[in-house]
Amino acid sequence: MEIPPQRPDSASPWTPLTAVAPNAGLTARERMGLVALAVTRARRGALARMRRSRLLRWRYRSPAADELLLAPPDLRPHDPSFADELAAGNLGLAGAVTDLRGRSPFAVTPPSPAWARELHGFGWLRHLDASRSVEVEDFARTLLREWLRRRRSRRDHAWEPEIIARRIISWLSYAGLLLEGAERKLYAAAMRSLTDQVTYLSASWRNAPDGYPRLLALIALVEANLCIAGHDRQLGQSEKLLAAELERQIEPDGGHISRNPWTLVELLADLLPLRRCFAARAREPLPALHDAIGRLTATLNHLRLGDGQLARFNGAGAGEHDVLLTLLAYDTPGMAEPRVLRSGYARLQRGSAVVILDAGAAPPTELSGAACAGCLSFELGTGTEVLLANGGAPGPAYADSRVVARATASHNTLCLGDQSSSRLVRDATLERQIGGPAIRLPDHVSHSVREVDGGIEIEASHDGYAASFGLLHVRTLALDAAGTTLTGVDRLTGAGNVMRFAYDTPYAIHFHLHPNAEARPGPTPDTADLLLESGEAWRLTATGATLSIEPSVHFADPVGPLHAQQIVLRGQCYGAAEVFWTLARIKAGRPTATGERRPQRRRAALTERLAETDAGFEAPDDPGKS
Fold it and tell me: 212-227 and 232-249 helices cross at what angle (nearest 10)?
């Protein structure tokens, strides 16, 4: 059941997440930026069509694929129950399940574009391979035959560059499942199609959306040239293109330009098998490839909390824990040295406590479809448990709640005037390209780190509220040497000559608890006790704001959004404000014995869907100043 946008209500768990403000429209700068992006996309599309034309097609034509030299490994997790679901007539992809009713999956109306993209990408072959049998092999070949028989329009999802790339990689990885024992006619048709797809991708990879999709297209080209006999001449060119794109997209310290931590996982899951292909062909891998893998691995370790999961920033959500562990175990050598700051994320670690803070600016507009308005938000882990966690990105089945999950109020940071520190940029064409509304702001984020008495302290600020309120948010976090006390100061200071507003502006500092943690009133009104399943307890004490315990939503869970709790520090801003708070451990938890698993509290998933809103992203008019 959908919950429509509603007015704030102290009894509603949706209060901080669904308050709606009037739409403020786009600025001249945003409109000019969208026009520039549209021109760039149109130019890329025209060039891609020209390269695919009869006049220039010869330049990109791949040699006929007659023989496969090797099959790359697939490091993504397998689901053996997938074959049983297909046998029962159901196909679940991208969070949606379709009843096939005896029809080919390529003949049904897709329930969503994401479902269609996954279907035509053939990544689900890994699930069939996990329960491989004669019947499953026959079924896989039947699906391949169906796809080949239905001549797909070059305008549908099947021929988007990133989907072609995923399909090429999947066909190569599971060539044994698809082609081993196949009749000669099917084998020949599949190899002709593979030749056609590699040719098409060679001419069209530049038209893939910027970011991971474009890298995936080049990875597929290099992998195809390594795995298909007679493609050595094409390999040199595709290697150069991939090296240049890796250099452009992977930051020197190992982050991705989209700032989405889960993109690092996706990239490693594709780059590690590619490196194995070079080894299998007795070829030296690209220096850029080896270097990128080392840097990505280091950054993934930098962004992990004690429970092994990635911190939930800028599109990271309920990723598969197993694939992350597999990737990190797959490539342990050559890890870079530890750093406090890496790709705009600060890691403060002392004792058993780990704090990860987002101290980076918003990514470029065309790469911000999953980015969040969570600047200066942080997560806190202690031992193998997580105490404070951002809302995170919901799974594909709960796409309606993504905008709400991206709002500042869903993060552990300060929210001013019920507005987010970033601004949504609404453009239908751009949203289709990047998978969601883009964001912009903050433009400038500063940070400095120092050690104090064996502890570690970071001070950071952002200008996300400068345009609408004339204020900067400055946050200081200090973790003591023992890792038992985290001290914080949140300040709102003038970005210019702001002295005092004509009216009070409310602010709220959110501390979202992980669903496995519980909040209770402390011994005084300005305190709250936070309890973990191990028995460990922390106390939050605040000065300068009113403390309350309120409902929250944790979006980043595999079963769907979960009820949770949050501590909120509320106050009024008259032009400047300052709030002091302390999180101190008051009770240690019971150690976990080797091999023991703590009992998990039963957590009911939310059955309601949050309404799709732009909640918290609209910027109001500048407050008057006296």
Answer: 160
Break the chain into its structural domains and give their ranges.
Answer: 2-26+344-444+506-572, 72-207, 212-338
Q: Fill in the amino acid letter for 80.
A: P
Contact 35, 365 (CB under 8 A): no
Instruction: Burial-class residue 186 by CB neighbours within 10 Å (0-12, 13-18, 19+).
Output: middle
Pick the CATH number of 2-26+344-444+506-572 from 3.30.70.1020, 2.70.98.70, 3.40.50.300, 3.20.20.370: 2.70.98.70
Beta strands in 413-500 (DSSP E): 414-416, 423-425, 438-440, 445-452, 455-462, 471-479, 485-494
Q: Are strands 2-3 and 609-610 parallel, antiparallel or unpaired?
A: parallel
Q: What is the pTM assigned to this prediction?
A: 0.88
Note the pLDDT tens digit of each residue in 240-259: 999 999 999 999 999 999 99
CA-CA distance, 554 to 305, in Å (whole number)?
Answer: 17
Give ∠ CA 178-182-184 in degrees, rounded to 5: 130
Average of per-residue pLDDT values in the chain: 86
Convert the pLDDT of each residue in 611-621 to its tens digit: 444 567 654 44
Is residue 554 within a helix (H) or strand (E), and if so which, with residue range?
strand 546-554
Spell 297-335 as b/e; 16+ CB within 10 A means b.
Answer: bbbbbbbbbeeebbbbbbbbbbbeeebbebbbebbeeeb
User: Which residue in 610, 343, 378 sits closest to 510, CA to CA?
Assistant: 378
pLDDT at 300 over 90: yes
Residue with tokens 């990271």: 316
- Residues 616, 373 contacting (CB under 8 angstroms): yes
**Ordered alpha helix ranges (H), 398-438:** 402-406, 428-434
d(CA 430, CA 324): 30
